[in-house]
Amino acid sequence: MVRRCLLLLVGLALGVAPATAQQTNDCLLTVIIEDGDVYDGRGADPVVTDVGILGDRIAALGDLDACVAGRRLDARGLAVVPGFIDIHSHGTRGVFRYPLAENLTRQGVTTAIGGPDGSSPYPIGEYLAQLDATPPAVNFGLMVGHGTIRRAVMGNEDRTPTTAELDTMRAMVGRAMADGAFGLSSGLKYVPGAYAETEEVIALARVAGYFGGIYISHMREEGLLLLEAVHETIRIGEEGGLPTQITHHKVVGAPMWGRSTDSLALVDDARARGVDITIDQYPYTASSTSLTILFPAWSLEGSRADLLARLDDPDQRRRIKDGIVANLRDDRGGNDPKNVVLARCGWDSTLDGMSLAEVLSVQDRQVTLATAAELTMELQAEGGCSGIFHAMQEEDVHRIMRHPQTMVASDGGILAPGEGVPHPRNYGTFSRVLGHYSRDLGVLRFAEAIRKMTSLPADRLDLADRGVIEAGAYADIAVLNRETINDPAVFENPHQYATGAAHVFVNGVAVILDGEVTGTRPGRALRHER
Length: 530
Description:
nine-stranded mixed sheet; globular
């Protein structure tokens, strides 16, 4: 029997398709994870059992003592869960720069979907072919970005597309979907997406829906006009005829705190009448994006040179300043310059980690919303910065997290320690939900938290045979210590890997083994199949 097992392992190494355990006379497996608390990913309580891996699939569940395996792992007292699926990842460049994706795998993430917020590579097919040629440690797929398509056809112009331009955009979305995109993403808060009318987005969403895809939106507003934006997102899904998702759902700005009750009620009402709408969320009370999110959209039309010209014009500069002051007061600024922290300024790294209030103080300037707005314009003129915006409330985070249609997503990238002072969500999103919110605060049952990271996003993406632990599913598996799961990454010191992952498998190959990175890269380019 041992000789037959060795022959099987050689065949796997050569890429020969293995027989399943049921097709052999003897039970021959590549890996057996023994006596773990196995969570199926669908929300059920765990069952103590063995999990057998054969090649890239889960071959068997149950008592596997009589089986022969190339490796046995003792998982007594540990949670054996499906690998996590990050449905909102900004890792499209990082997946090539840091292909081991350690900031993800150390949390148990085995799949990431890039191209969110309306921004994606294009053509999709060429990008996925590059992934095929240089695979990372995790599986990776793509949405196609509405903003990317619009910019390619219309530039950064604030106007309605012509009939010919809209037809071209439709065709580009169709090509992306045919190439394997999972759906259409939009960033209606960002330019050029902010310049699109709802009807334009509906027209493109219908194309994605024709191919069986979904629509995921960074909504037009998440502050004072949050509820109007939820209405718009629901309308796009309803009239576009496709599943729809509010991405990184949040309530920004003190005037709106607590209104997640209303936004979730809108979701529930829409679902009750048949609209297929869901949510994803990261578990923090701060967001992160470019400082340009504080600028009024009209001021960002055209090129960087156009913006600089507006900043040099006294009347236009005054209007821009008024818009930034309003956003600092009622939206991302949380009504205090200390709430806006510079995450990375490529032209001056000494600013990284400083708040607008701190920069003003160092410069011996009065700390007010008006001076913070002036500083924001100055920073943008110098080259711009990314920022972290502390303007959300824990009560809303808890309420959104508990909603049964909310899944977990990082809104982070694939990176390694060393650059800037980024949002800790890049390192800790999934571990934070399991440790801080589930184990420590009891916001979610552990099994429910796992569902929100596995089968819920897998079902949303039509990812067949992923996101669950069952015979025949892909062997994307994380083995976690529930007592030591933690997210040491904090805002002041974010470059810290999560703890608690003992073993992580991607397509049946260990990327984390005994808590250490193996250096293997078994991830695959994922393509949506209609």
